[in-house]
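Sequence in, structure out.
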Amino acid sequence: MHAKAAFLRPSWRTLQLLALVSVVLCVIVVYESYWGIPSASWPRLPSWGGVGGWDNAHPIDVLIADAAKGFKQALSSEAKSLEDAANKYRERRRRHPPPGFDAWYHFASEKGAVIVEDFWDQIYDDLGPFWSLESHTLRQQAHAFTPRIEIRDGNITMRKMGPHVRLDQWTDMLKTLLDQKHVQLPDLDIPLLVYEEPALIVPWQTIDTAMSFARPIPPAPADVALEYTGIEGVENAGFSFDPEWLGARRVHPAKANEGERPYWSLVRPACHPKSAAQQEPLLRDIWDVHEHTDEEHSAVNMLPIVFPDGTLQGYVKNWSVATDACKYSHLQGLHGAFVAPEDLNACVKMWPLFGASKFSMNNDILLPSPSAWNLSLASAEEYPPVNWSQRENKLFWRGPATGGLSDDNNWRRFHRHRFVSMMNASEVNMAEPLPRWGRNSSIGVSRSETFLLTDENPYQLANNGGNTLGSWVKSWADVAFTDLHCSEMIADGSCPYDEDFYRVDNTVDDDKFQQYKYTVALDGNGGDDGGELIERMRGGTVVLRASVYRNWYDNRLWPWVHFVPMDNTFMDVYGIMEYFLGTRGPALLQDAAARRIATAAHSWAEKVLRKDDMLIYVYRLVLEYARVVDNRRERLGWVADLDEEGRT
């Protein structure tokens, strides 16, 4: 009997096993109900502190939940018919749609586009100020500028003074659009910017005045003009146009002996008078090669030690705020585009100029970038659905040290250099504050002097302190330059002033990023990331993204739903990675959150970042621009869905 009883009594090891199985089953149930991937709607997060409260939630949990609600709300406004699209247009734009709107809608609908009116906000932000300028002057300026694309009777002609790949790619984009069935574009001249950096940076007061004169006054349906009048008057032989470029290096004509004029000196007047850029001083000692830079203006000392505006406990909650350089005066010394733009002609005059990127304060008119267009030609089969379980649980990035023209005096201020340094374990070990002589050091500077860490631990990193942060970063970061891209490049590809701080790895295949769960998209020259964001999204990775540029697709992507936003200082990157790697909680739930973002990125990119979506964007942009430069622009519109009383 005793032997039988002993046999029936479960051992301690058996009880442990049963308990473990129960926990796993509970986790699976929670996972399926909480993070179920197939559902089209985002899951509702549980309460984290108190009844229905968020007291103990990680800020990223809150941001993910809020973003999901915003995304769902935006999708609920999708137009389901031509009449619905026209009504939503009038509600948002306070004008009638332009002539040809019906053809545009049918083209977009046939291509399977997601037609949410907000997706085209960038077009109206770009074109808004031009409504205050004389239409015939705009037409003449556009026709007098070279290079330009001419659209005449459904044919495309490129007018240029020399070969340029960007021009050829934009020409291909417009020709591809015109080759589509039933697409008809009005006669037009489209001036193009061949430089990588944006050009138009008009003072804020000028734009504010322009917008006050550009208020829409929609006519009654019976008074609407239904057809464009074309490019009347552009052949005026007596018209000449000088954009008044400030020069490739922006030297002030009256102060040529003082050397290069800092680009930030142009940025400030283009920002709101109450913005940080206007309120805080221009740090001339950063650029003056004849003057010693103040210690407080070194790269590490310019890094903010408080959470930036537009964040939730240091994590980006508003992408428009995070990318608005006017709000962050420290970026004048911490981002290559402002420290030393590599390829830039600047102009403070308002005239129509189309380019691939712009800052928040620029006035260029955005087209999809040539790199994005080339990438769109790749088939969906090149980006298979996420095979999440077989990917390495690491962050991967390879790219050149671009984003501006670095030299021995300024390279520590460049954003790409800072990010790569922050992903280097030895650099992190050097920067991590350690107890010394019985006291805590308050600050630690990296060996490259590109970033710092404080013992205040503002992001409450579990891995902070005790010289553990570097080894932790080493366990998940696979980041390196492919080219140091410096102003004093040696024949073997090395760079004499920063080669001791960076390793160069140009041996990886272009598709290696698909082996990893996490990747990065960083600003390159002119904001062109080489198509990284779109490619990484289509490849089904979690993309960590930071930028100071505006892009044509920004209004159709949701941070924390389709990508993970970073502040442009990157000081939040360790907190972001600690969250997703599960150091602060159950790794399974955080990994599921990452997988959901990666899956959403892949599926959404295949819906709104396709070649067809670029064509749809350009089609609508051309219709709207043609109206702005038309003599009858105030009366032009499409009203076939309305009766004479304006009723549908």
